[in-house]
Amino acid sequence: MAKWGQGDPRWIVEEREDGTNVNNWHWTERDATSWSKGKLRELLVGIAVENEAGRCEISELKQVEGEASCSSRKGKLIFFYEWNIKLGWKEFTMGMILPTKAMATQELTVKRKLSETTLQIQASSPVELGVRIPTVALHMTELFDTAIEQLYRIFTVKDLVQKFSKSPAVLEAEKGRKFQMFDGNVTGEYVELLTNKKIVMKWRCRNWPEEHYAIVALNFVPTLGQTELQLDCKGVPVCEEENMKFCWQKQHFEEIQGLLQLITLNG
Prior knowledge:
Number of strands: 10
Number of helices: 5
């Protein structure tokens, strides 16, 4: 047990001025029940099993009872779920009735639909288990007392990135190039760069599910001698929502504001 005053500072929430749950060190939980019900219906209805005896197809989801949640503890994602599911199905016996041309066309369409659905799930799944995790979208804005050109440079020039992040960074701001920030805790890839206007990135934290990236778009908008930065982020794991807000507000926006003040003082 740690001595008094020597505990991990991440445990102390009530004594922090901002009351922030740093890096999701404490237990956080998000309800994923509603999202999961819709996803179960999407994944199950239409599945067909076929052999020499016949063909069985799931036609409807009659009952879905249960719950699901996504939690985070010490920066790790934990998933809980319990479901009671009843399915409706229909069966076709092979060889009893010869199919008409219309029936053959319908069967081909069903098989094609199932094949396309399977491919889509495999291609878009960010988790090793093949299940898409529930995500949220974020929108944040911040007003900076500087010109667009200066603010854009702070996000794209390595030396300036290292100054506001106060840690080593690896980056080359060109489309398709990868980057690392905050000692490798944040990694990603540049998707689009419009000089002094817009930056789009694939963006992830180290503790997110493997190969899962959010899409972060930064729009630089001039306003009365200042610059408004508009952040739109899609694909953030629900359990990481608060941590993502903290990262951008505290570790990006506020640190950049401090850096701009130093630049102004130093002329």
